[in-house]
Write a structure and sequence with these properties.
Elements (H helix, E strand, L loop, with lengths): L28 E2 L5 E2 L5 E5 L6 E11 L6 E10 L4 E4 L6 E4 L4 E2 L4 E3 L4 E3 L1
Length: 119
């Protein structure tokens, strides 16, 4: 009569919905030395010609060297366009870097409208 099940038991609330499936992560390979191999379009940090100074670039091509000798990465240099925004340098030559000299910038996001990255 009062909406309670027989025997004085209280109804349990329904279980919470399962979490939404996470977006699939991009698979990361490691080279023979244990360095993370960046993927095409990743933003990476690499050393400049001056000690202690670093540049940013976007990975253009990943080349595997024969006989497990590692990887060579073609990087398109980026230039700052103000604030946290970076864009590809127009007419700049690609820079070839060993994977051991690169560090992936994990918090970079690409904006198609402005053709730039926020880092």
């Amino acid at each position: 009569p009062d909406g309670q099940p027989a025997g004085g038991e209280q109804q349990k609330p329904p279980p919470p919905a399962p979490p939404a499936p996470a977006a699939p992560k991009r698979q990361r390979d490691l080279d023979i030395r244990g360095f993370v191999v960046p993927l095409v379009n990743d933003v990476v940090r690499y050393p400049s010609k001056w000690p202690g100074e670093y540049l940013l670039g976007a990975v253009d091509f990943v080349q595997t060297l024969p006989e497990d000798r590692g990887y060579v990465i073609d990087v398109r240099p980026l230039r700052s366009v103000g604030g946290l925004r970076w864009e590809a340098k127009r007419g700049a030559k690609l820079v070839q870097e060993d994977v051991g000299r690169l560090r992936v910038v994990t918090d970079a996001a690409y904006d198609e409208r402005s053709d730039s990255w926020t880092v």
